[in-house]
Amino acid sequence: MLNPAWKDGLYCDLSEAKVSIEDRGYLLGDGVYEVIRIYNRKPFSLTAHLDRLERSASAIRLDVPYTKDELEAVIFELIGKSCYANGYIYMQLTRGSAKRDHLFPADAEPTLVMYTRELPPLPVIDSVNPAGCITVPDERWLNCYIKSINLLPNLLARQKAYESGSIEALFYRPGGLLTEGTRSNLFAVFDGVVYTHPATNLILAGITREIVIDLMQKLALPFKEEVILLEDISKASEVWITSTTLEVQPINSIDGNVLDHASPGKICMMLMKEFRNLAAED
Ligand code: PDD
């Protein structure tokens, strides 16, 4: 199969997988999702992703209809059926298919779909290009810790970033509090200390963010889970963003202003390398 997919216990190619038009994910955005990286035919940080899926589902009053062992078995089977070494698994869980109504359906079965797609091999560390970000007001709801499939504010901001030649848009809340990117978490270094937004309801607690925090602990790098201010970001000595698909991505400009430092900086480079080692070992 080119891109193996799974739904309701059945495997098929993604091109043949089907979900009802009345699925509440499609009609109402009533669902949650996960994106898991495959490195060298193995899922990376699988348990952390499955735990987060469960947290997101529980936050929208939905039960994951399979045990973690069952989900893991499907994921390994999907990877086994795929023909590429590096890619990602997409999982989406919705409240199921039912006559359209804002109220939860009494008897709908949740819909769970999973599929894999290939990703290009990662560029060697030395050729990872630093990139720019723009900043935009955070117009999302207050439950960003849920990995909800409702991504419209993220999409609009990301498109704006793309059209201005930037890799990411960074969200800020009233008072200039930078939270995260449209699909990534933000880190910045001030006076040798790494800052990242605390894992509150205002951000998605990224699995990559958590791994980077663990690496900083291991390397005894000083860090604080504290808010970064929009007015300060241009004074940072290093900035980077993290996500499953971007890993550790150095940032060299914000809103068109080139940051006054070499990018990637020393700490970012160290973390990029350590992260790669971990992905290779896992
Ligand atoms: N996005 N913040 C937001 C809003 C995200 O959507 C993501 C991930 C992250 C980083 O999380 P992680 O490190 O677990 O990937 C932070 C995924 C990759 C996506 O939507 O494609």
Describe this structure in words.
The structure is a single chain. The chain is an alpha+beta fold and 282 residues long. It has helices at residues 24-28, 46-59, 68-81, 152-163, 207-218, 266-281, and strands at 4-7, 10-13, 31-39, 42-43, 87-94, 111-118, 131-137, 168-173, 177-181, 185-190, 193-196, 223-225, 228-229, 238-243, 247-254, 257-258. It folds into two domains: 4-118, Aminotransferase class 4, branched-chain amino acid transferase, N-terminal domain (D-amino Acid Aminotransferase, Chain A, domain 1), CATH 3.30.470; 125-281, D-amino Acid Aminotransferase, subunit A, domain 2 (D-amino Acid Aminotransferase, Chain A, domain 2), CATH 3.20.10. The protein contains six helices and 16 strands. Strands 7, 8, 9, 10, 11, 12, 13, 14, 15 and 16 form a ten-stranded mixed sheet that branches. The longest helix is centred in the C-terminal third of the chain and has 16 residues, at 266-281. N-(5'-phosphopyridoxyl)-D-alanine is lined by residues 35, 180, 183-185, 204, 206-209, 242-245. N-(5'-phosphopyridoxyl)-D-alanine (PDD) binds at residues 35, 180, 183-185, 204, 206-209, 242-245.
